[in-house]
Amino acid sequence: MKYIITDKPHYRRPDLHQIQAVRDIPFSSRLRGAAIRAEEFVRAGDLGGYVSSEGNLAQDGIAWIYDEAQVYDEAHVSDSARVFGDARVYNKARVCDEARVYESARVGGEAKVYQSAKISGYGSVYDSVKVSGSAKVFGSANVFGYATLYHSARIYGYAQVHGNSRVYGSAEVYGHARVNGSTEIQDNAKVFGKSGVTGEAWVREAAHLQGGVVSGRTVLAGLTVIDSTRDYLCLGPMGPNGLYYTITGDGYVFTGQRRREDRFSGTIEEFETHVDNAPRNNEFSRQFQAMLALARTWPFPVKT
User: Fold this and answer.
1) Is the pLDDT at 37 greater than 60, yes or no?
2) Does residue 279 have a cis bond before it (omega within 30 degrees)?
């Protein structure tokens, strides 16, 4: 046993009671040398945050709840996780491994925050969301639905990520951006401003979406920068494999297939060479030649 639940109720939530350590609680050796607040060290007799039952905080492991933080309902904090500040974890949410939930963050529903993920600021994570790796949600960002964040993904500002979206790699979603549907944001891509990504769209590599809405099976990749919906076209299905192609105003062509052998990322000129080297088929050749003609003549707005 590492703590007891005292008789001291929370001043706003009388159904929650403060915890008190009955022994020193050490840190994980993996955390030593990291930036740790002095007040995070827990000694026997220290008071902690508030819970509704012993099921909210594991008696084994070194997890702890601090300050005015609240964990209640069927929520559970375990392993080396820490919840502090004015954070709240509730419903059936899980915070485990070396995850951190702090400041005024909220984690609810059946969300799971694990590995070294962090939820802070006024960030909220709920429904069936999973946040792992060293991913972070902060600012006033909201993540809900069945969204998944992992690796070093960052969601912040007033951004919203939901649906079945996946954000991973070192991708960032921020500002007032909205990401939903079955979209994927990965690598070093950035989605920000008042932009949106929906449908089965895919933003990868170092692409920047800073305005407009990308939808359907559109793919943005490379170093392309999109300011509005006038900056790209998505065409398809085309070719023997029924692929979708995205043409951008800065002269790139991308395919949206998950299979690497079906992907293409390059300039319009490189795509023309790619088409010339492909197996000949009259019907599909006509499709590609028509797409190339459109790419060369379509009046993309001039970027300055």
Assistant:
1) no
2) no
SS3 66: coil
Q: Which residue has the higher pLDDT, 18 or 281?
A: 18
Calpha distance 113→135 (Å, rounded) = 9
According to DSSP, residue 42 is labeled B
What is the edge-to-edge ordering of all strands in the sheet holding 154-155? 64-65, 82-83, 100-101, 118-119, 136-137, 154-155, 172-173, 190-191, 208-209, 225-226
Taking residues 21-34, what's their average pLDDT? 66
Measured distance CA(43)–CA(46) in Å, rounded:
6
pLDDT in tens, 169-217: 999 999 999 999 999 999 999 999 999 999 888 898 888 888 888 887 7
Among 199, 241, 239, smallest CA distance to 219 is for: 199
Q: What element of type H or E holds 254?
A: strand 252-255
What is the predicted pLDDT for the residue at 29? Answer: 45
Q: Hey, what amino acid is at 19?
A: I
Mean pLDDT confidence for 77-99:
96
Q: How many whole angstroms separate alpha carbon 56 and alpha carbon 49?
A: 11
Nearest-angstrom CA–CA distance, 149 and 132: 6
Query: Which residues lie across from 100 on neighbouring strands?
Result: 82, 118
* DSSP states along 107-151: E-TT-EE-TT-EE-TT-EE-TT-EE-TT-EE-TT-EE-TT-EE-T
Q: What is the dihedral of CA 70, 73, 74, 79, to 10 degrees?
A: 10
- How much is the pLDDT for 260? 60
